[in-house]
User: Fold this.
Amino acid sequence: MELFSAGGYEFARQVLQRGIAAVYVVAFLSAVNQFPAMLGERGLLPAPRYLARTAGRGIPTLFRWRYTDRFLLAVAWTGAAVALLLVAGLPQLGPPWLPLAAFLLLFFLYLSIVNIGQTFYGFGWESLLLEAGFLAAFLGSDEVAPPVTVLFLFRWLVFRLEFGAGMIKLRGDPVWRNLTALYYHHETQPMPNPASWYFHHLPRPLHKVEVLGNHFAQLVVPFFLFFPQPIAGIAAAVVIVTQCWLVLSGNFAWLNMLTILIAFSAVPDSFVQAVLPAAVAATPDPAATPVWFAVVVLAMTALMLYWAWEPLRNLFRRDQLMNASFNRWHLSNAYGAFGSITRTRREVVLEGTLDEPGPDARWHEYGFKGKPGDPARRPRQFAPYHLRLDWLMWFLALGASGGSWFPVLLQKLLEGDRRILALLRTDPFDGTPPRWVRARVYRYRFSTPAERRADGVWWVREPAGFLTDPVSLAGR
Assistant:
């Protein structure tokens, strides 16, 4: 089994298995906290209706059999519990089939949720988590050495992530080609974090250097992940450092954290020992790998290589797809982000009143947890947690259709729906339903340093019209 097993990657295996499991904990807790309100039996896009519409399409999900909010919560809590065991490393102490079964269970439980999540689960990092969790199942336990082919498939995943994102940018908005993308990005990204204001105000020549560095990290470095050591390890370190930069500058759910984790597939133990000599355990004897495990891993590798053709071809197509799945299992996907950059930030602000609409009506604003609202409120850090409603509100402000869920959201506010209100940061009516609600549009920009010192605000906003006129339950 010497050719099958990779010596010197024990630390990488621990990071991959425990780190990916930790992201699953976050994902399942997100489902516990948000799914019933958005997609439950009485949600904005009820999952039972979706399942009825898609009956017979063969979508893999446990909920094809039956959906209830209680069953959803049972699935999510089970997934979180199993993931916590993997974070602690307990299944990895047993034979190889034990972490294999545990990760495959996580994969299928989360796949069941994603496949009925509709637009609220239509993000590339959902497929990324599913693919990473599936591959992690075949890394084995502490009794066997990590399989070479699985480490290769993780590197192929990093390559698609980075090179795909780089090609999307190069083919897309000209600001990536003239190196001015970061003049706008930190201010207009979906959900700025506490440091985004400072990143936005870095000198413009430095912004151009950042974009140039991004192109190097995404278009050149990924090829070196497949080179012998130490070149592959150096390439992985570049990916990790650039992803850490993104973690510092914005909230992108678990996208960046997961990319950092899977990049460790190319980091050998020798790199880690040079910094932390006591952090690496000895690699198990390759001869200890059971034949059945090798057969299962090689069969999985053959399947993933068979599915690799479509995402490989997609990377070099003029009409490259971004964040696309080529099979219903969300395995061997296409990835990419920010092919275009918004120049002006628009925000949809929801307001309610207890008065009759008119010039004397007093309108009060609902506050969201992550997206900008009150100009004096500093952006918060939420990643790797994913605030799905906040993200959909950002897309809505860009002109995306919210026809399937946004009118229902306004209705829920008029009803004082507790589950929906729990997704918000502030309810100006303390649970009392307003008589009328409306959706107002503002143009936002980061305050200048002078405005920040004088007025204590992080944002400056100006009215830009209305998305919806005032609506009430009686006026539906």
Q: What stands out?
A: The chain has a mean pLDDT of 94. Residues 10-39 form the longest helix (30 residues). The beta strands are 345-353, 364-365, 367-368, 424-426, 436-446, 459-471. The radius of gyration is 24 Å.
